[in-house]
Task: structure prediction
Amino acid sequence: MSAMASPLASAYATPRAAYAGGARGAARHKPKPSSRRFGPGTEAAQRRVPRFAGSFLLAALFVGVGIFGAVRGGELDVFVAANGPLKDVLARAVGLGISTVEVSGTSRLSSQEVAAAAGIDGKGSLLFADVDALRERLKSNPMIAEASVRKLYPHALVIAVTERQPFALWQKDGEVSLVAADGTPIDRLRDARYVDLPLVVGEGANEKAKAFATLIDSQPNLKPLVRAGNWIGQRHWELQLKNGLTVKLPEANPEAALALFAGLMRDYKLSEKALILVDLRLPDRVVFRLTEQAAAQRADELKKRLPPQKGDAG
Result:
């Protein structure tokens, strides 16, 4: 019985041993739960998270709360008024402000005046500067005809301008201004260099300055004698000569009337006569008016030439 049991025992024992050995081997090679669950990808993810991310997020939270409180309390408006928009403040903080403004093309304007005309006040930044808006702002200045603006990183603006050139003087309400050829007022007359420019007087005369200059240029011998041109009723010119003589020109074809007057000046030496007015507005005649003294003398002369009337003494 024992002999028979022994083989049976050994037959059944062998699988148990193998099973036990297999279980022990499986247990030895079974991966740890932590390794299976988290693996190498988690370590890479952990390496990608900045070390101080939590501190930065907390700081951002405090900054956000502070900005919210400033907005609600009105302090942000005060800050922006003093320092400019927040985006420009941040741009300046990283070195992208506007610390240099290079200006070219000026003859009468200074670099400071050009920068002020562009609205550059130190509160903006190069990063957020709108060059098109700066250009239009410059062109809105009556002394600037054209302008270009470009950025030169990290902190410079390059501005090139074309100034309007004085073409004539315009007098209105007792004030004399420089005007460009298109009639745009440039500035008040401050410089004696421009006193020899053509002078036009009256409402809307600035817009007719170029036409007036062309008119008097048509008579080179007469031009030096003309002091000013009065634009009367926005319809016709009235010339003021330097000797005090007034010449009224017609609304239609003033060039022909001025040519006629130039001939009379040459042939009859009108500048030597005691005249205060020559009216050329009528197509079939020229009207002359004497000074008061000359008119009185003329009346006396005519009176002497006339025969005495009945009843006159003598």
Observations:
- The first strand starts at residue 100 and ends at 104.
- The chain has ten helices and twelve strands.
- The radius of gyration is 48 Å.
- The first helix runs from residue 2 to 29.
